[in-house]
Design brief:
Length: 373
């Protein structure tokens, strides 16, 4: 069988792309290395910019118990904090619940799945416009078009010889759910030396605690738990988390080699989306919403291609242009703001300035969030 589209990776952007394309009548296969549901390292706060869009796909987060979030709190390493309203707001839901729900919607839209398997090699079929994908389980699939939604780093990135793959990154990310006392309408961002930590409640009533840290911190303390107790806990708000709250997971989830610099949106005619297109700084406002929106933008151009309105080269150019027009400024803003986080003096100065000029805080939030789609 020759599929219209094969999607590599079944995270948010992969699932959204699959749903959009399959419900438009295309034959779609999604290859995902794990099964559903799975916990993932993620902030688990979703901006309301994609709320109505998700409902149009058949997913209402509040039916699944998502928490309505409309307040934001920011603290410096010292603990001095700023509190403000979120102009647009959002909701808290775990990737465990969100991905599972979207997976079932995809099945209802006749998306085909190859689970517990991973794409390892892609090649063009002779002089045709067809692609052939070889998987870890020795499966071979053919498609007219390939979407890469494989996440931050994968074997397929290595085999495509993507330029970022050999470059080391100094960042790690860690996530765990906790039982503790935390307002369900709040998302908080707390600085510590060499990083920052986000907190928000998810549908279970547990608090998602997810932080980005320099790799040097872990090398110094040699153990995640020790690093949390001795380094992150220097911020009094995080001291409460790591000394008093009860972890829900047996062990925290962690990932390394988090590469924030620019990636190609197409590579050897594979269309990249989500983290494969460009990892989003946490300070851009909301990576989950951007992954969802990016998948929508790509799907619109793919459908134009299959309607023969545009050719493959125009598809690639259009997608690159549209993606950058929607997200480049937010990514630049996130990169700029990251300079103010993770150091005692700079983070303290930033929080004090925002407390004196509260309108600036709302302006920054608006600049790092998109409009409703």
């Amino acid at each position: 069988m020759i599929y219209d589209v094969i999607i590599i990776g079944g995270g948010l952007s992969g699932l959204i792309s699959a749903i959009e394309l399959s419900r438009a009548g295309l034959s779609v296969l999604l290859i995902e290395k794990k099964d559903y549901p799975q916990h993932k390292v993620c902030g688990e706060y979703v901006s309301n910019e994609v709320f109505e869009y998700l409902k149009s796909l058949g997913f209402d987060p509040f039916i699944f118990g998502a928490k309505n979030i409309n307040r934001f709190e920011l603290s410096a390493v010292s603990g001095i904090k700023l509190s403000t309203e979120l102009p647009l707001g959002g909701f808290g839901i775990s990737r465990f619940a969100l991905d599972e729900a979207l997976y079932h919607i995809a099945i209802s839209q006749s998306v085909n799945f190859q689970l517990n398997d991973s794409a390892e090699h892609i090649e063009k079929v002779g002089n045709s416009d067809l692609f052939r994908i070889f998987t870890q389980k020795d499966k071979v699939f053919n498609a007219k078009l390939i979407i890469g939604a494989q996440g931050k780093r994968s074997v397929i990135d290595k085999n495509l010889k993507r330029s970022f793959f050999e470059k080391r990154s100094p960042f790690i990310a860690v996530k765990c759910h906790y039982k503790g006392d935390f307002p369900e309408d709040l998302v908080a961002l707390h600085n510590f030396k060499g990083g920052y930590c986000g907190l928000s409640m998810v549908e279970t009533g547990h608090i998602n605690v997810c932080y980005l840290s320099s790799e040097s911190n872990l090398k110094k303390y040699k153990d995640i738990r020790k690093m949390e107790l001795e380094l992150l806990s220097q911020n009094p708000h995080l001291q409460t988390v790591f000394h008093n709250w009860e972890p829900v997971f047996k062990a925290p989830l962690s990932i390394s080699q988090i590469y924030f610099h620019e990636k190609n949106l197409t590579d050897q005619h594979v269309l990249m989306v989500g983290d494969a297109a460009g990892l989003i700084y946490p300070l851009c406002g909301n990576g989950m919403a951007m992954a969802i929106h990016g998948a929508k933008l790509l799907s619109e151009q793919v459908l134009r291609y299959f309607k023969t309105e545009i050719d493959r080269i125009t598809l690639e150019k259009n997608y690159t242009k549209i993606w950058k027009s929607h997200f480049s400024n937010r990514i630049k803003a996130g990169g700029f703001l990251q300079n103010f986080f993770g150091t005692p003096f700079v983070s303290g100065t930033a929080v004090r300035s925002l407390k004196i000029f509260p309108f600036m805080a709302k302006s920054v939030i608006k600049f790092t969030h998109g409009k409703k789609i």
